[in-house]
Amino acid sequence: MLEILPLILVFPLAGMLLNAVFSRWMDETWIAIFACGASGTAFVIAILQAIALSGNHFHVETVLIADWITIGNLHLPWQMRVDTLSLTMMMLVTGVGTLIHIYAVGYMRGDPRFARFFIYLNLFITMMLVLVAADNYLMLFVGWEGVGLCSYLLIGFWYDKGDNGVGNARAGRKAFVVNRVGDMGFLIAMFLMFGAVGSLNFDDVLYFFEHNGVEVAGLATVVTLLLLVGAVGKSAQIPLFVWLPDAMAGPTPVSALIHAATMVTAGIYIIARSAPIFALAPVSQTTVALVGASTAFMAGTIAVTQWDIKRVLAYSTISQLGFMVAAVGLGGYVAGMFHLITHAFFKALLFLAAGSVIHGVEHGGHHTHDHCDAQDMRNMGGLRHRMRITFWVYLVGAVSLAGVFPFSGFWSKDEILADAWNVGVVQGHWHGVAVYVLLVLAAILTAFYMTRQIVMVFFGEPRSSAAEQAIENPPVMTTPLIVLAVLSVVGGALNLPGWHTLGHWLEHTHHFFHGLDFNLGVALGSTVFALLSIWIGTLVYYRRPLENATAPDQLEGVLGPVFRFLYCKWHVDELYSKTIMALYEWKARFLAFQVDWYFWHDFVHEQLIASAFRGVTVVLSGPVDKGVINPFFDGMAQLVRTFATRVLRPLQTGYVRNYALGVMLGVIIVLGMIFVNEGM
Amino acid sequence: MTISNLNLVGTLPLLFLSAWACGLLLVDLWIPGDRKHMTGWMALSGFAITFFWVSSNLGQREEAFGGMLAIDGFSNLLHLVFLGSGILATLLALNYLKQHDIERGEFYPLMLFSVVGMMIMSMAKDLIVVFLALEMLSIPLYVLVGFARTRADSEESALKYFLLGAFSSAFQVYGIALIYGATQATGFAAIGDAVAISGASPLLLAGIGLMLVGLAFKVSAVPLHMWTPDVYQGAPSVVTGFMSVGAKAAGFAAIVRIFFSAFHSLAADWAPVIVLFAVLSTVIGNVAAISQTSIKRMLAFSSIAHAGYVFVAIVPGGYGALSDFAASAVIFYLAAYGLTNIGAWSVVIAVDHADGMGSDISNYAGLARRSPGLAAAMTLFMLSLTGLPPTMGFVAKFYVFRAALAAGYTWLVVVGVVTVLISAYYYLRVIVVMWMNSGDGQVVTPRALNFTVGVTAAATLVLGLLPGPLMAIVESSVRGLF
């Protein structure tokens, strides 16, 4: 069964190539069939692998695809790894990916670049699978960069739209550049591992760290901190989270798949994968946990203030990714992976449902020629009557995200909080307490901003004619929503207290991975906080709905400057642009103008080298060439000519007697030479 | 001398061609005067049969006539050169003679006899045979040069060629006599043995010098070259094309055989003379060619210069193991020169007119426009004569210079390369005139001439691009002979 594993890469790749080559001769239906079929087949293969793995007593297997780099003892193959961790990710990526593929068929219908969208999407699935199925860090990095490329391509998919017609392209560039910072960390971490271990295969590297233990704790700290830099970039944590909100410029299925459910979780995956190294570096673990918790809180505060339906969800994603990072930082790998899965369900659901809302409002806008911003929640309202399915699934996603019992988000978020409680209160680590407090605050904010969103979008009266005319979307879009809604409801069953299905499943990959017992106090506390928060949200937004599309937020009047500070995302973008960007641009300008242009070009090249060269050429071409060399050769040629015409030609007199004399001369020369040579 | 060491079987191609020539003389009597081209076709078939006969049996190593003739790879390959030039010249002659109103039947048997003489020359292992062969190839040539007897310049050049040829033959005979006096032998092997025992006596050295003069006259080495331009200019162009290749190759064949075997141990004495010939011929030949306005005289001086390059290849022959190498280079160079030169003379014939106009280089102006194929072929021939890639001439010069370098004659190679540079001036001038100047005039291109030009051009190019197989054949045929 394992030998068919490489097919999981082959199918999406084939789907991509097929559409890339033949899409111009196919209509949208066939393109969609190929793309969705490729993704769906990959999902089936992942399921089959999971069955095979359970039948094989969860024995970790590797499948060699091809040799790649072999230099001396260094051996880096294209090799896939099958264990419970990688399979979990494979099933998630292909399963959610397939649903989003199907949804996108409806969402992208009629787009002039329909085929290209699915080519990118299949390429993304391929690359994500390379990432999670890799058996060494280098192959993982190939997938890591591959998904980065797809992210860039898809954020800028409508590259001709956005602010000034370049906004989307700039968003793509921003994501790409910010991710480079993270990649640099990842690369240096790889170099260090290779320098110390001489290999990049997971088994070799992890064995090295486990085997040498505290002896290499220093190296482990550096490597893990650098891996954290990589994870921070990819998973949009402080300080590199700024690219993710801008990434919402991409089509909504992309936001759901790449920027919520799968790619952004790669950072959590890499930390979980490297768990044995992190176990040696408490400093790094503390850093990871604090970064995650701070991000969770900070993004939560920003999400409260945003108007754009997708931006709210984007900050919510950052916040939830912070939960996961905090969990893996505290050693709660199962909790982190659990939340990763449930979050993939309900956040994909929310994004897709938001896309459904946007689609519906846009449709209404076309109908009434009201070209208002279809993503601005101030232009919505009262949509629960016009888009019933979307409303209900959105509600399911929201309560799940808010952590309401018994939805899936409750179970996974609660497990993270229990981990924090355990580390902070039971084990008495200060950072555990800090993380717990921050996460609880973030959870409260989560419930609040989701309430705000639900109310603004679906309740009250429509605040634009587009919203009045919005219509529900076709089944090709709503069916995946319903499936995801079901998963969001029952997803918690994956790791219910007492059973710990996911925990036991993941234990087979690492002995670090084990779940915690249910903490009733924490669960009750968080449920109370969530419900309280929802109640407050209802008070603020439902009782006193927005009057019209231009009215200020109800909180703005209360919080004032604080609200505006949060609305401007804590001015992080401005901070970066005033410090890093400005410095960078100043340096670039200095290098480009002062150093390169004025110094190198004007002074060194133009004045020193070029003028010196010119001077030399003047001398060489004038006196030397024209004065000496040219006349010399002209003279030689003239000499040869003169010799030929003045000396040789007269010899050819035409008289036989002269020629005979020539023969005689030859005889004398030959004989003379022979005898002189012989010395006689 | 018994029948067995006569080895008539081994010499059958030679005997066949001789008999064919004699028979053709008789047959020609019954061929009416306006259909003499039939004689030509018959001569052609004789050449062709012998050509394929010889080429089917390249690798044999036999002796005939009691050791006076050698039948080996060296002679067989040169036979192909002689026969090939005979075939091509005959093809050209078919139309040339009629066009110039000198079509008579005896032309073709004379060609055959001359080729027989050349063939014997390359087989000779005895000084008497060398002399016989020399006269046998020369006397028909004297007649052929004067074949256009209605033209005064043809007669004049024939007479010059004959007088000077006789003059130099006398030196050669005298040299043979002196060598015989010194060694009491005429066979190369016996001379070689005697020289090895008694060493160099003044008598022998004088004989060698005079012998060399006689042969150097045939290959037109400076300073024995003065007849060449006048004869080449005056003779019918087909004859010039033929003798510039065949007679020269035959002379070199004899030089290689005599000096590589009989006088091998005296290399220190004769090699400087060969070097002198090489230097003088390449320098004087190329320089003098620059000032020529007639393409025929230019090609005459060019042939003097090419004799010099062959001498460059002969120089290493005195150095033990290099003699095979040298002989291969000589054969390859002669083959390359033969193909290219006959091709060039074909073009000259096409441009030349019965009234003697058209032999000036200026007559080639605008040829590229009037007759692009012919001009392209002439360009190729000129490049090959210069020794530029991708032509056979380049490969040939490469082998020659490589042999000289192997023998340590770096300065001689430098002289050779500098003279090649000089030669580029007058060869490329023809190309410039053809392609860049405008002019008019008729060209006569019968089918046989087109065939000749096409074959030689293709061979020049193909063997320039892929010289390996031919060079391998040459090297394996010559290996261990000297």
Key phrases:
heterodimer, A: 680 residues, mainly alpha, two-stranded antiparallel ribbon, 2 strands, 75% helix, elongated, B: mainly alpha, two-stranded antiparallel sheet, 20 helices
Can you describe this structure?
The complex is a heterodimer of chains A (about 675) and B (about 475). By secondary structure, chain A is mainly α. Chain A has three domains: about 1-275, no CATH class; about 280-565, no CATH class; about 575-665, no CATH class. Chain A is built from 27 helices and two strands. Chain A has helices at about 5-20, 30-55, 85-105, 115-135, 135-155, 165-195, 200-210, 215-235, 245, 250-260, 265-275, 275-280, 280-305, 310-330, 335-370, 385, 390-400, 410-425, 430-460, 465-470, 475-490, 500-505, 520-540, 555-560, 560-565, 570-650, 655-680; strands at about 60-70, 75-80. In chain A, strands 1-2 form a two-stranded antiparallel ribbon. In chain A, a hairpin with a 2-residue loop joins strand 1 and strand 2. The longest helix of chain A is centred in the last third of the chain and has 80 residues, at about 570-650. The radius of gyration of chain A is 35 Å and the shape is elongated. Chain B has about 475 residues and is an all-alpha fold. Chain B is about 75% helix and about 0% strand. Chain B has a domain at about 265-480. Chain B starts with a helix and ends with a helix. A two-stranded antiparallel sheet of chain B has the order 1-2. The model of chain B has no long low-confidence stretch (mean pLDDT about 90).
What's the quick description here?
Chain A is mainly alpha-helical and 680 residues long. Chain A has helices at residues 7-22, 28-55, 84-107, 114-133, 137-155, 167-197, 202-212, 217-234, 243-246, 252-261, 266-273, 275-279, 282-305, 309-329, 333-368, 383-386, 388-402, 408-426, 430-458, 465-468, 475-490, 501-507, 520-542, 554-559, 561-567, 572-651, 656-678, and strands at residues 61-71, 74-82. At the A-B interface, α26 and α27 of A face α7, α9, α10 and α12 of B.
